[in-house]
Amino acid sequence: MADNAVVGQKEAKRFEFKRLGYTLMLEVAPDGLVCKSTYTPSPNGAPLSHEELSNYLAQAKVREGINDDAVEELLAAAISHTEVDGHPLAYGIPMVPGEDGSIALTVKDSLESAEEDAEEDAENETVDFRVVQSFCNVTTGDLVGQVLPPGEGTPGLTVSGTVIPPKPGTPLNLVLAGNVSLAPDGCSLHAEADGRVFCQGGEISVEDVYKIRGDVDFKVGNVLFNGFLDVSGDVLDGFSINASKGIKVRGNIGVCRVESLGDISFGGMNGQGKGEVSAGGNVFANYINDVAIETAGDIVVEYEMRNCSIKALGSVRVNRGGLSGGECVAMGGVEAASIGTVTSLRTLIVVGVNYRDQEEINRLFNDMKQLIASFNAGKGTMDKTDFSRARAEIANRIQEVRARQYVGCNPKVNVKKKLYDGVNITVGSICEEMKEEQNGPISIIENTIEGGFRCISLTDLSVRAQDIERAYVQQHEFMLRRAKGVAS
Length: 488
Prior knowledge:
By secondary structure, this protein is α/β, with parallel strands linked by helices.
């Protein structure tokens, strides 16, 4: 007779079936998801048959997930009088709990964008190991993420056919840490400032300051950040940093590309003729050597500026040291303790000129040159009337650019200590190369009365050259009127 008693129910349900030729134990796991079999053959009697096994499974209420291959393996072991221990016969379907509520970012991180660019460069077999940054840049108003509700989960099924209800996910504990707002729909997250998105768990914020504790090296990589960048160390050769709201490097910068729409400040920079700085604001440094700088503001250097290519819409000041070598174009004037060198290193100073206008005029002159050359060579189909009209348009454009006036224009050069010979200075419309040294302190402006330069006592760059010259012109006119009155 069969002994169909349930052996235990605390951890698992066990069903034992004894026959003359074998003993079979079926064990259903506490969660009802697995049914295992243990088969012990005995010397006398027939082995377990398929019909008997089906009957035993039915008695154990195992109806779902019966594995045909597993059944065949058990029956094969029974025929060969082989003992089997813990052999799975049926599997239920586990319940899948619902996903917890979360934040799904809707912005692409900088590393992902760089990897896409790298895939395009893969054909050229170029790999930039300096691209390692991974964070999301956003601007004010951007949709940065969506709050996802918790999932309901998927129900399971035991081997006995009982449905296992799913466990729903936990709602998100949303924390708006800063510069992020939740829309009225309760799920859309928008940036309230420019910066990078920080998201951890249910906390999300937009940070507009990125601090790097140490150097910008291969560990940090190139930086492209929509905010303010603060570097406590140096920026090593070959790396580029770009931060929209400003950059502060407390150490020095090597052969790098540094760019910002705001102010840029650093200890020193030796660009070796390849370094570049582009600023939408002002530039502050202790020293700058062999660097190309383009700025919409002022450049203030404490000790030395040497062999640089400077384009500034503001002023250029070297407070304690000298400006020597290279080319300096500054609309707001130039001031330095010394300008030039004893060795007459080529130094070009241009003040009172908007370098962007200067570049535009150069392009227009080049267009005029090409137009005339093409017409004279007869390469085009342009007749004399069209040629004259095109040339007049370019000429009018040149005059228009030249007629532009700017509040910050100050054609003035201040020398506190010494101006060396060999320095080429352009002030307003006057260009001269200094033939001999001059001692400071002096200010150099255009002499509109007699032509050439007017060297006067030093005045700060805040005093415009035009205002100073206007006073000289008024005095000159007064003296002429007075002389005329005396003569009459």
